[in-house]
Design brief:
single chain; seven-stranded mixed β-sheet; 23 helices
Length: 799
């Protein structure tokens, strides 16, 4: 049974995985996917990790070929679905948002299913896409009801359309009657301004207070000055009433429509939720791919160890990071590191100065393990890989952390105690500044004891320390290995390079001297040093110097070898080019000679025919020219045979493997013709070439195909499996189709797609008429609904 992934509550924060999740969320285009990105976490199940990485791999391939593919238009309508399922009435804007989401989900599915060979190339992404339900009826109802700006359309129902027609008529009659009143002589004397306004939802006109008696009607409002009354004339009261009644009827009908659609959305809530989840899964995978592009990340190998293990190594787990980079540091300045765990040692003990990169190296291992187990590609070189760890433990003091300040000794011990209690042989343990913050002698002793306990538990881990005692302990203890971060004594700055196999060197006295400390003080300090420790430091310095020398020599040797290989390849290329050039020149000269001989023979034949027609004997000069011509032909053939390479006719026989350098072909010699030409079986084709251009090569003959075609031409050009004819005239389309079918048959394509579009169907008819009875066509049919439907014809070619 697989173990569930064990993680401390703050491990993801300590290793800054939360910031990686933020980077991932920023690359999501769908808010629900961004939310899922912020919740992303590692898994301890190797099969699940392999699946997650495979999904990311498919997304990387998809965006590489189709960089504009996205889930654009999806909305997080979960609050809308919740309101609908709880019986709340949805408004027009919420209906529109639901419609946009349904349409975006359908567009996403259509876009994906139009990709070539999507089922074979992106099977895991296809599972998400195929999970998107078909909601065509709900989409049609919403599309008929709500407009682009969230307005309720007249087409929502027949009753609503009828009410709105009557409402417009009532409104027009009302305003027309009010305009006529304003123009009448009696009312014109009483109005303040010739305008129509509205009060309390009813149309009124402004009447002067001192002439109120001239206009019979209902007063709805008074101006602030009291000089103007807003009166609804009695003549339009019924018209106003009718208009208001129709408004109420419209509101009631809209409410009824909204209730029906709310119920429909509530009934489809599960399917809509499924569409949201599928789109979010696709967008999250695409975001992982975008993050991989931005970080120049690669897919990590999931390492599973089987068989024997070297002494000190781990029986099951490995960490193999090549040129690994911390994903949160500037890619332009970060120094890549190589880390290996599990082959011949289980725990790497890193020593070196503060701010030298020890903690960054520690975090890089832990963070890349979390990324890999979350289905993310890792910023490292090809060939990098990790095992899947069911549990990861970390204690990072991290003085130079962006987020965390120096921890106390007690807090360190609290984490270490929890680690020793919870870790086992399947755990990855990362401890920064082991047992620091206490008396150095006790701290060193405690650190050795903790390392011994970790070895007993069988964990894989990385530990950083300042204690020099741990260097010798790592040297003498199987399962431990020293490592260090380099420090440049010339510039007094760290290089951040991680060097495995060599412990860190103490540079305090050297740095003090470089900074100008009195030499007498330095000499006194050296007297206080333990002579044994000083000898060890000197030995380590010598080891480091020799290692650097060996590395430089290795780099120089590799450079020289690379240059030699390049020169050898260039020389071979020049030899091939020279030989091909000589062969071409010879063939061109012989071809020119053959042409001239052929012309001369034609002249002789013409002279003989003329002599025969005139019934006179042939001149002696003609006979002499014929004999000279034949002699020249034999001489040319003999010269060609003499100038052929040593591996030519006398050494070539049927069954030999040969190549034609000028054409880049290789195959089996199957026939010889007149001692001058040969037939070569190249795949399913036979090529006839002069013997003079052939070269014998080593290798077993390839099996002969059951059917072949004899040709005397280079292989056909590459042919795309799809032809677009949309927008073309019928005559041009037929001509283009004929040429394309010939090329496709020569290229050996089993089937092709002819895209002619739907339109009026004329071009489709022309294409089908051309295909019927065509000698190269086995059968043809319209494409499926998800592959173009009536706009595409799939043509199957004869074998």
């Amino acid at each position: 049974m697989e173990k569930a992934f064990t993680v401390a509550s703050d491990l993801l924060r300590i290793l800054e995985f939360d910031r990686v999740r933020q980077l991932l969320a920023q690359r999501c285009q769908f808010s629900l996917a961004a939310e899922r990105a912020c919740e992303l976490g590692p898994t301890g199940d190797p099969e699940q990790v392999a699946y997650l990485l495979a999904v990311t791999r498919e997304a990387v391939a998809l965006l590489t070929e189709h960089p504009r593919f996205s889930v654009g238009g999806m909305r997080d309508i979960r609050p809308i679905l919740e309101r609908a399922t709880h019986g709340y009435l949805l408004g027009p804007a919420e209906l529109r948002e639901t419609l946009d989401t349904v349409q975006a989900a359908r567009a996403l599915a259509r876009s994906f299913l139009s990709l070539p060979a999507w089922a074979d190339r992106f099977p895991r992404l296809a599972e998400f896409i195929l999970a998107i339900p078909q909601l065509s009826q709900l989409e049609a109802d919403l599309l008929r009801t709500v407009g682009p700006r969230g307005e309720i359309l007249d087409t929502a129902s027949d009753r609503l359309a009828e009410i709105r027609r009557e409402l417009k008529q009532a409104h027009d009659r009302l305003l027309d009657r009010l305009r006529r009143l304003l123009g009448s002589s009696g009312v014109a004397q009483a109005i303040q301004d010739p305008i129509i306004t509205m009060r309390e939802g009813r149309y009124v006109i402004p009447v002067r207070a001192d002439r109120r008696n001239l206009v019979a009607g209902v007063t709805h409002d008074v101006s602030a000055s009291g000089q103007t009354l807003f009166v609804e004339p009695l003549e339009v009261v019924e018209l106003n009433n009718r208009w208001r009644e129709l408004q109420r009827a419209e509101e009631h009908e809209i409410e009824r429509i909204l209730r029906v659609l709310t119920d429909d959305i509530a009934a489809a809530a599960d399917e809509l939720s499924l569409a949201l989840d599928a789109a979010a899964a696709v967008d999250l995978a695409l975001a992982k791919a975008r993050l991989a592009f931005d970080q120049r990340a690669v897919e990590p190998e999931i390492i599973t160890v089987r068989g024997t293990t070297a002494e000190g190594g781990h029986p099951r787990h490995r960490v193999r990071l090549r040129q690994a980079r911390h994903p949160l540091l500037d890619p332009a300045t970060v120094v890549p590191i190589d880390v290996s765990l599990g082959e011949s040692y289980r725990i790497l003990v890193i020593t070196g100065p503060n701010t030298g990169g020890k903690t960054v190296a520690l975090k890089t291992v832990g963070l890349l393990a979390l990324m890999a187990q979350s289905g993310l590609f890792i910023p490292a070189a090809e060939g990098s890989g990790l095992s899947v760890f069911p549990a990861i433990f970390a204690d990072i003091g991290d003085e130079q952390s962006i987020e965390q300040s120096l921890s106390t000794f007690s807090s360190h011990m609290t984490r270490i105690v929890a680690t020793l209690r919870g870790a086992d042989a399947d755990s990855l343990v990362l401890l920064d500044e082991l047992a620091a913050g206490t008396d150095p002698q006790e701290g060193a002793a405690l650190a050795r004891a903790i390392l011994s306990r970790l070895l007993e538990l069988g964990v894989l881990g990385v530990v950083t320390t300042h204690y020099p005692e741990l260097k010798a302990f790592a040297y003498t203890t199987p399962g431990l290995e020293n490592a260090s971060v380099e420090f440049d004594l010339r510039t007094l700055t760290p290089t951040y390079r991680l060097v495995t196999g060599v412990p860190g060197q103490s540079n305090a006295l050297v740095i003090a001297r470089r900074l100008g400390l009195d030499e007498a003080v330095i000499d006194v300090a050296r007297q206080y040093l333990d002579p044994a420790a000083e000898r060890i430091e000197g030995l380590l310095a010598e080891i480091r110097r020799r290692r650097e020398t060996a590395e430089k020599q290795l780099e120089e040797a590799q450079r020289i070898r690379a240059e030699a290989d390049a020169l050898r390849r260039r020389a071979e290329e020049l030899l091939r080019e020279a030989e091909m050039e000589r062969s071409r020149a010879r063939e061109e000269a012989l071809a020119e000679l053959e042409v001239e001989l052929a012309e001369a023979r034609e002249v002789l034949r013409s002279l003989r025919r003329q002599a025969a027609r005139e019934e006179r004997p042939q001149p002696a000069a003609v006979e002499e020219a014929a004999r000279a011509l034949e002699a020249a032909r034999r001489s040319a053939r003999a010269a060609a045979r003499r100038r052929r390479p040593a591996t030519q006719p006398d050494h070539l026989q049927v069954g030999d493997q040969v190549e034609v350098p000028s054409l880049g072909l290789r195959g089996e010699l199957v026939a010889l013709h007149d001692g001058d030409e040969a037939e070569i079986q190249v795949g399913a084709f036979r090529v006839r070439q002069p013997l003079s251009v052939l070269r014998k090569v080593a290798g077993a003959p390839e099996p002969r195909p059951t059917r072949s075609v004899t040709i005397a031409a280079p292989p056909p050009p590459r042919v795309e499996p799809e032809l677009h004819l949309r927008g073309m005239r019928a005559a041009d389309a037929i001509q283009r189709l004929e040429r394309y079918l010939d090329d496709a048959a020569r290229a050996g394509l089993p089937w092709v797609r002819i895209v002619h579009g739907k339109g009026t169907g004329t071009l489709r008819s022309v294409v089908h008429e051309t295909l019927r009875g065509h000698p190269l066509i086995d059968r043809f049919e319209l494409a499926g609904l998800g592959e173009g439907g009536e706009g595409v014809t799939v043509v199957f070619l004869k074998e």
